[in-house]
């Protein structure tokens, strides 16, 4: 029996695999949708959602449909949560992964992803948890390739805002894997998880890149090719919004911050975005912003991840 591959973290792929998947995603994006219908005919994706979603839900469901498969949504009203209140996670995993060919899960806790994978009979994809957002990172790298060229090595990505954030963590790791310099400017109370930081630095030392953490947005953004931010108030933290926003005073991405990066730097945001809070309208709606390319690329990158995990050898008759 073939080994089941999962995508729980960007670290589940080697750098070479990551590049291969990204190249597949780029080519898929150029192939007419109707021509992709024979890639996964008759295959079913189970989609577990503990959190609301726009981009994740739509990109996975439409992507699966475009490849000839089907996706079934399982939200809190159908499946409960993954705390074991309604039924144990191992039972959910054993049942669902015997009926489906691949399963994605957008959950609150990293432990839920790993427990699902432990008992799975098919690949499990982390569609977001508290520690990582690997699918977002793949879409981000694809978007950077489109705007900066296929060779990512030597580019610099700067993240400004919450360092202890699932997106920040996946970006730090994936940038290091690709040989990209990564800098994060965050309040001292919101620095990267120490384990993730240590992992990213170790990988960077092998790839010839750097990982920098600072509390100064202008220091972090110097010589950046990509400037990135995320919402300061994560889903579930709305009750503490006032205190959180006060903590992030001085970390808004505005025109002055963008001027500190390279003249041809691009701006990215994984969305949802809150104009006037983590980023000004002049930046996110300005000429350097590539947020809609980034959002669309969730679909293309995730298609490629799904095909890779399912062992589909994609043959491209198209140029």
Describe the secondary-structure layout.
Layout: H1 15-30, E1 44-49, H2 55-66, E2 70-74, H3 76-79, H4 89-99, E3 102-106, H5 110-118, E4 124-128, H6 134-148, E5 156-160, H7 166-178, E6 181-185, H8 194-207, E7 211-214, H9 217-221, E8 226-229, H10 241-247, H11 255-259, E9 266-269, H12 281-284, H13 291-309
Parallel strand pairs: 1-2, 1-3, 3-4, 5-6, 5-8, 6-7, 8-9
Helix pairs in contact: 1-6, 1-13, 2-13, 4-5, 6-7, 6-13, 7-8
Write up this protein.
There is one protein chain. Helix content is 42%, strand content 13%. Helix 1 (15-30) packs across helix 6 (134-148) and helix 6 crosses helix 7. With 319 residues, the chain is an alpha/beta fold. The strands form 2 sheets. Strands 7-6-5-8-9 form a 5-stranded parallel sheet. The protein has a 4-stranded parallel sheet with strand order 2-1-3-4, sandwiched between helices. The longest helix has 19 residues, at 291-309. The protein has helices at residues 15-30, 55-66, 76-79, 89-99, 110-118, 134-148, 166-178, 194-207, 217-221, 241-247, 255-259, 281-284, 291-309, and strands at 44-49, 70-74, 102-106, 124-128, 156-160, 181-185, 211-214, 226-229, 266-269. The model has no long low-confidence stretch (mean pLDDT 95). Strand 3, helix 5 and strand 4 (124-128) form a beta-alpha-beta unit.
